[in-house]
Sequence to fold (105 residues):
Amino acid sequence: MPKITFVHRDGSETVVDAKNGLSVMETAVDNDVEIEAACEGSLACATCHLVVEDQDWFDRLDPPSEDEEDMLDLAFGLTKTSRLSCQIRVSDALDGIRFRVPDET
Fold:
């Protein structure tokens, strides 16, 4: 199981053993990370927005779809390494990645 780190707004961290095949959003919600995930992963909002902490990790992810980019335009606290966590599937390739919960939601 890949280990994923979520950095909370207060700077504390949650490291989880993520289950392959789930979305990063599902992993975050299952581990009480403070994201809303209002549309439950249907790509209809930006409330599961997370920031990939390292550009190298961001570059390793599949690029966002046009629909994801459109939704990201609605996210508060958008950065150049922002992603919607519902659009990233957990795999062994994510072992060690770090996501930060944006200060603004």
Observations:
- Strands lie at 3-7, 13-17, 49-52, 82-84, 98-100.
- The longest strand covers residues 3-7.
- The domain at 3-100 is CATH 3.10.20.30 (Ubiquitin-like (UB roll)).
